[in-house]
Each structure stands twice: as structure tokens, then as C-alpha cells.
């Protein structure tokens, strides 16, 4: 039976996109572990900077699937999982293949090297989507090959490279993404639109971003807090884009401790931040389109409202689509013409 390597890599990609931006300042990475007969043993992702990498999470679950030994599920640090697997693998992974969206890391830092772990476990083959361009963590493929593990690269390379776009921009200096929520008829006004699951995800992203940009009219009408209270996270600094500088300081966003709030008619303050989230509608979309890297749309299965995007004739390429509650989530970038 011919194996569809793209199928397994796509599973890893789908899982990784669920954590896009949430792994800042690390890249979003997904991994799929496949057994001897093509059975899926685990599909996992990197969840948060400082926590186990995608390969470690996937191998942890795969070990449990192969042994039913729940002891490994009680381990949470990357070091503990590495140590347990190396000590107890008993060659279980010799016939397994691993699909990872990014070259396994060679670097030993907050977490051990994934390339060293895969080598110690003696996996049969590793399929890699994108090679690591970060010199500190690169050369994992070489480690694997030096340990007689076969490596195949460039599996869904474009898709895996698209997943890394935020990380590439973090390294270069700045990543900017534009988020909005809309109904099926395209409207984005008049009250709450997104599901509870979507709102929680947005709060997780606010917790990771350095600066949140919003329009002055939205602040005056919605009187938002713009924090991450649903996940007990931090409130990012805020840039309000407005020609009028006077605002009611009783609006909740002004009452957050240890937060800087800027009111300006330009985006100069962005140069001091690395991970920037914009929440807005058509006006802010037009004002920021020259420097936005990715777009994130929450599409709710509702009809109503009055105001929709207008006088905009852009084409966007969907990089990933998923669900949060009843909403459809789409990560997009500007289409190449």
C-alpha cells in the first residue's frame, strides 16, 4: 500500500495552526507519529514557549498508545518526558515514522534536543516539512542522519513555511496580524458576534501580544477592556488610532494597571513592539494593509447587523481553516498576484 505522506503532514499542520501565535516567541510546530502499518499513534503540537516541543508531546502520547502505560502521561516537563522515553522505549519506535512541520531542533536550552531524542529512540524515518532557518536550533536533520535515521525533507514545504511566517518575522523584528469577527452576511457591528470558544482564543492571543491596536470609534462605542481576563492573562499595551485625542477615561481599557495606552493618528509606536495584534473593521483594515503580515477572521453562523467591509477589493489566500465552537476560523495572507 502506497503511503500518502502529505496526509500525515497535513494532520501535523492542522494541529499546529491551533496554537498559532500562542507559542510566541517560539514557532508553531506540529508532529504526527505513525506506526508500522500506517496507523496514527499521535498528532500533537507545541503549545507554549518553555513547554515540550511538538515531537515530545507526540512521542509521549504515542508511547502511551503502544504500551497503555499511563505513568508517562503524568509527566509534564520536556526533560522528564525525554528521560522517561530514553530509559523505557524498549525499541518500540523502531518501525515508527515521524512527521514534523519543522526540522527537529538540535539546540539544548530550556528544553532538550528533539533531534537527539528521536535518535535515541531509533525511529525508522523522519519526514520534515520546513528546514529550520534559526541557526541556534538548526542541523537537526544532520544529527538524525548521523545516527542512521532516514530523513525526507520538503514534505508540504510551502504549507509548513507559511506556518512559520510569524516566527520568521519575530526574528526579523516584528509580526503584525489583523483580527476581526463577522457574520455570514459580512457585518461586524452591533454587539457580540463570536462564540465563547472564539472569545477565549482571542484572549489567549492578547495574553501573548505586546501591543493591541484598535480604532477610536470602536473604543467610544464598545467601551472595551481589551484584556485577557477569560484566561487570567495579561493585558497588552494599547494603541488607539484616532484624530480626536479626548476619550472618557472611565472606559475600562484605561483602568488596567501596568498598561500603556497610546492615542495617536499614526503607527510610529509600533517600532517598540514585536508581536502586534490589530482588532478592527474596514477603516483600520485599509489603514494597516501595507504592513499586516497575516489576517485572522472569525466567521460566525449568524445573520444581522448593518455594517460590512466596503470599497475593498483585495484577495486573500486561506492558509488554514478550523472551528472554534460554532465559528469558522481562517488564517489568511495577501494573495500573490
Give an account of the 3D structure.
The chain is an alpha/beta fold and 337 residues long. It folds into two domains: 5-169, Cytidine Deaminase, domain 2 (3-Layer(aba) Sandwich), CATH 3.40.140; 174-334, Dihydrofolate Reductase, subunit A, CATH 3.40.430.10. Helices cover 28% and strands 23% of the residues. An eight-stranded mixed β-sheet has the order 9-8-7-10-6-11-13-12, with helices on both faces. Strands 2-1-3-4-5 form a five-stranded mixed β-sheet, with helices on both faces. The longest helix is centred in the first third of the chain and has 14 residues, at 54-67. The model has no long low-confidence stretch (mean pLDDT 94).
Task: List the defining traits of the structure above.
single chain; 337 residues; alpha/beta; Cytidine Deaminase, domain 2; Dihydrofolate Reductase, subunit A; eight-stranded mixed beta sheet; five-stranded mixed beta sheet; 13 strands; 28% helix
